[in-house]
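Much of what follows relies on a compact textual record of a protein's fold. With that in mind, consider the following protein and its fold in token form.
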Amino acid sequence: MNGSNASSNKQVTIGLLWHSLSSDNLGVGALTESQIAIIHSAALRADVNVRFIVFGTSGSRIGLNMTPDVTIGDRLSIKRILLGRSRYIKQVKSCDLIFDIGEGDSFTDIYGLERFYYQAGTKALVLALGKPLILSPQTIGPFERSWTAIVAGWLMKRAQRVYVRDVLSKGYLAQLGVNENAYEATDVAFRLPYTPLAFPATEKVRVGLNVSGLLYAGGYSEDNQFGLTVDYRHMTELLLEYFTSRNDCELHLVGHVLSERADIEDDYSVLLELANRYPNVIVAEKFQTPSAAKSYIAAMDYFAGARMHACIAAFSSGVPVTPIAYSRKFAGLFSTLGYEWVADCKSLNTDAAVAMVIGGYENRDQLRSQVIGGNILAQQKLQSYEDFLVTCLEGIHA
């Protein structure tokens, strides 16, 4: 991933806010690795050397995929910052640019106010220190409280640019009055590298199913926090019963948030529980990197999942997929790429959602052709984003 330009004497330090190379959520890792790869590509074109400071959540994968030009910043703690015990301010001051990707979808209040305070507070500090703030492609909102919407809008209007990854978020920015600096791209994880695994030859159809431990638990509050209209547990069981009953299918259960603590977010502990009840399934390994997960998913003939970056891994590797959506980020992202086959768990009932996943399997050849077209569009959108990064890097110390 090291894309430094040995011929250049121009050095640029980039802060990557709300990124992580150690998160148990492989989606956040996929965003970070892909963002670094895109910035390296832009740096080569701009004839500059770049180094990165990564500010974000930490997990069990610390040190993986690290290169000499990447430093892990001080952990984000508003309390430590206010008490003067954090190096965050000093490290931000050392940066020429700050790219904030909001962990993909965390600049919202639907995950609770504590997360919103962290998202908003760290952005406010960047702006207060006079550093250029660029919101990289992400889902923005929703903000269900009027005051959080006002705060978010105020912060975004002061950013150099705000990139969203879907047309719905672009429309939402307009509602917040964020227009002049708002742009649409797509998820940077479409650039995540991978090599499809070579499974033993079989005449069976390899089906991958990602089960979200968070949705299986009912959200952080364990009481249908996300307002689903489906019974997610029952839906999962119906899908396992269907695919394991088919003699022509080989069902793989795939996790994408893999916590060593087996907490409420963890997919893997749920997969093991399900495998005890459905012994013919294959439980995918506990992946150590986002690229390893994508390489596994890329070897499937069909995929369905409730973790959006597991679905992006499928889509971007050409695998027909039915995203199982618990928020508007799914429909927004995939519809922007001309792909409408999304099982919306906030509007469909359980039987209808199950039928859509099965329908995707039965029509996977048709979906595959739509995936090909969507990937072409995704790469065009990311090329436009990279072109902007080239201009940014060329303008520093000019």
In short: The longest strand covers residues 11-17.
